[in-house]
TrEMBL record:
This is Inositol 1,4,5-trisphosphate receptor-interacting protein. Residues 404-477 form the Mab-21-like HhH/H2TH-like domain. Enhances Ca(2+)-mediated inhibition of inositol 1,4,5-triphosphate receptor (ITPR) Ca(2+) release. Belongs to the ITPRIP family. It comes from Melanocharis versteri (Fan-tailed berrypecker). GO terms for molecular function: protein kinase inhibitor activity. Residues 38-72 form a coiled coil. It is found in: Cell membrane; Nucleus outer membrane. The lineage of its organism: Eukaryota, Metazoa, Chordata, Craniata, Vertebrata. Its main location: membrane. Keywords: Cell membrane, Coiled coil, Glycoprotein, Membrane, Nucleus, Signal, Transmembrane, Transmembrane helix. GO terms for cellular component: nuclear outer membrane; plasma membrane. It is a single-pass type I membrane protein. Residues 1-20 form the signal peptide.
Length: 547
């Protein structure tokens, strides 16, 4: 019992002691602590909010960076795909270009093989032939016999007379020249229509070329447009001639390309030999301050030398000699006391290496070199090889073959048309080039005399196509099928084909005149031929007919 009362009392005392009313001061601090806690909680909340905003900004920045990286990756991937597509298009374009180039080369090598076609296939003739009454074999044979053969019989005598006089004149020229300082002149050679037996129009003019070489110790070093160095398109077919000492390297000594010190000397060349005075090179007919041969100076020297030579031998002849044309420096004319005259061209040339290709200073009566880039550019002539090719092919043709007759008739018709409507860009050299291509393309039996009409049609048809395409390739340049018997230089066979109609591509007025002249010639062909033909019954003439 006492223990129980003690426990109750102890419980009451403990309750009284722990009652909050007994400690008012201590319990009064609770509100202050609560406000501080609340304030700290607010500060903590604000710091957490700021931290949250910072984290959100960092996350947004990271997301933006990620998106930018992804976008950049997409752009890079797209650029790679576009590059791959571009590379594919580039490769495809290159393949197409190579195929076109291979086709072009194959076409150029074989494009003359199918120009003849069937002899009676006149349906392929162009629009220019529609409505044209083409003379038949009987009319052409009568015209050729009456007009062509009747005027070319005295060509052989004229050639013999001119060659004999030219040899005498050149011999006198050598005697008046200084062998130690002047150019050395060689024997002349006959080229062109008079020596290929197809010239028909008077006056007959013989074309002679005269090779010359520099005096010792000098030599000519020739450079062509196809020798490896870059030449502009308008200089294709030309070359330059450098005058060098025979003991000088073609590329020149290194002492000419580098500045040696004052105490250094070249062991190969002294200072005297390494620098040539300008007057010395001008005496060698070079362009001012260069080592390149000047065509204008060469022609002036040649004219003066020919005049001196003629003064020496003029007492031996009963005629006068004079220069006939101012724009053709090598054009000479022999005037007899009876009033008759004989014209011929004597043109100096430079031999290309050891071949029969020559650099020619001027083309007489021709527009082939009408726009020479400069007087140091010389045009190349293949006239000697052209003459040899015609002679070589003629040996394989039937007797009395019609190839020369075709060229003579076409040259006559063209000359007559030009006398009516004025000259055009089309020349006899273009007509001869057409014949050379046909001679190489067609079999020998196709040039039998009875096939004159068909071959003349082939030449006109071929020329019309060339005029339409503005392409007539030089026969020798770029032609890999030149007969080996000619020993033609391989460098020109491997060169790019030279388009003889290229000058007319940009000169539309001349091209238009050339085409109009050709069409007029076709329309007037029957009238021009009938004018020089004896009467033939109409039963023999039926226009364009098949053989």
């Amino acid at each position: 019992m006492p223990v129980g009362l003690f426990r109750v009392c102890l419980l009451v005392i403990t309750a009284i002691v722990n009652h909050p009313l007994f400690f008012p001061k201590e319990n009064g601090t609770v509100p202050e602590n609560t406000e501080e806690i609340i304030q700290k909680m607010k500060e903590r909340e604000e710091s957490l909010r700021l931290e949250q905003l910072r984290l959100e900004r960092e996350i947004a920045d990271q997301e933006a960076t990620q998106k930018a990286l992804e976008k950049a990756a997409v752009v890079v991937e797209q650029s790679k795909e576009e590059k791959v597509r571009w590379d594919m298009w580039t490769a495809l374009s290159m393949v197409i270009f190579l195929l076109i180039e291979l086709w072009r080369q194959d076409f150029q090598e074989g494009n003359w093989q199918d120009i003849g076609g069937e002899e009676d296939d006149m349906a392929v003739l162009g629009k220019a032939f529609k409505g044209v009454a083409f003379p038949d074999k009987a009319v052409l044979a009568s015209f050729y016999e009456k007009r062509i053969l009747g005027t070319t019989g005295d060509m052989a005598r004229m050639r013999e007379m001119v060659e004999g006089f030219a040899d005498d004149l050149l011999e006198a020229l050598r005697s008046v020249c200084n062998r130690d300082a002047d150019m050395e002149v060689e024997d002349c050679m006959g080229v062109g229509s008079m020596y290929e037996n197809w010239r028909v129009r008077k006056p007959f003019v013989c074309d002679l070329i005269v090779p010359f070489a520099p005096p010792e110790p000098y030599c000519f070093r020739c450079q062509t447009w196809c020798s490896g160095d870059s030449f502009p398109p308008d200089e294709q077919g030309y070359g330059t001639i450098k005058v060098c000492r025979a003991d000088e390297d073609a590329t020149g000594c290194i002492c000419d390309k580098t500045k040696l010190g004052e105490d250094m000397l070249c062991l190969l060349h002294s200072q005297v030999s390494s620098s040539r005075p300008s007057s010395e090179m001008e005496d060698l007919l070079c362009f001012k301050n260069t080592q390149y041969l000047d065509a204008d100076q060469v022609m002036k020297w040649f004219q003066i030398a020919v005049t001196k030579a003629w003064n020496r031998i003029s007492h031996k002849y009963e005629f006068d000699l004079s220069f006939s044309l101012l724009d053709s420096p090598g054009a000479l004319k022999i005037k007899f006391k009876s009033g008759k005259s004989i014209a011929f061209n004597l043109t100096p040339v430079v031999q290309y290496e050891n071949s029969d290709v020559y650099f020619i200073s001027h083309f007489p009566r021709s527009s082939l070199a009408a726009d020479v880039p400069s007087s140091t550019h010389w045009f190349l002539t293949f006239a000697v090889y052209e003459r040899r090719f015609i002679q070589l092919v003629s040996k394989t043709l039937p007797a009395n073959a019609c190839h020369v007759s075709c060229l003579q008739i076409l040259s006559f018709l063209h000359g007559k048309q030009c006398s009516l409507t004025g000259p055009s860009g089309l020349t006899n050299y273009h007509l001869k080039t057409v014949l050379l291509h046909l001679l190489q393309a067609r079999p020998s039996q196709d040039w039998a005399p009875e096939k004159l009409e068909a071959r003349l049609q082939d030449m006109l048809k071929f020329l019309e196509r060339c005029l339409h395409e503005k392409k007539l390739y030089h026969f020798f340049i770029g032609n890999g099928k030149v007969p080996a018997e000619l020993s033609f230089p391989i460098i020109f066979q491997r060169a790019e084909p030279l388009n003889l109609f290229r000058p007319f591509v940009l000169r539309r007025d001349i091209y238009r005149k050339m085409v109009d002249t050709f069409h007029e010639m076709l329309r007037n062909m029957s009238a021009l031929i009938n004018e020089y033909t004896v009467h033939i019954p109409l039963a023999h003439t039926n226009g364009i007919r098949k053989e």
